What does this fold into?
Amino acid sequence: MARLLVVEDEARLLRLVERTLRGEGYGVDGCEDGAEGYERARTGEYDLVILDVLLPNMSGLEISLRLRRQGVRTPILMLTARDAVEDRVAGLDAGADDYMVKPFAFAELLARVRALLRRQSEPALATELRVDDLALDLMRHEARRGSRRIELTPREFALLEYLMRNVGHVLSRPQIVDTVWPQDFEGGSNVVDTYVHYLREKVDQPPFAPLIRTVRGVGYVLGR
Ligand code: CA
It folds into this structure.
């Protein structure tokens, strides 16, 4: 059963959409807050995310942008309030796969949902990231180095995933905090050093060659 996340702050519309989708047999989670929607969507546990554009705390565009920057490839259907070309272009630029203009017919919503889920189930989607002998299974949330299984906390996993998706590219501490930590995190970018330390303890121990490198004064890069 496909799992869908709907982020829509109009409570009445949210309930209607939830009911309609559940009626088709989908598993549906709804939320009315943008920041909360982002936190849920970034887990990657959903098969499809439906985002309203105007939301409290974080807009649908911002959510989409952040998810894509973080490498989350869950299909996104954007709900725009106006039939403005700029809105649609902005939505697609922000990484949305499709959009619908409100008010919409539920039959059309269901058709778009089916199309996006079909597209997503095509086999091109990578479920494993690999750099050297380090592998990250995105479905099972497991890391391996060679044949050794490595237990990671969700934050460590997110950090490693971000580094692996940007293999060979130096990432700055603020960039990492923006992507891997919640939007309202105020602990400063030193937390990155702490978590890179944790990751190295788990991932970069002998006999394996170190993969996470410090770039002095800039940040970190993964790759030999
Ligand atoms: Ca709204």
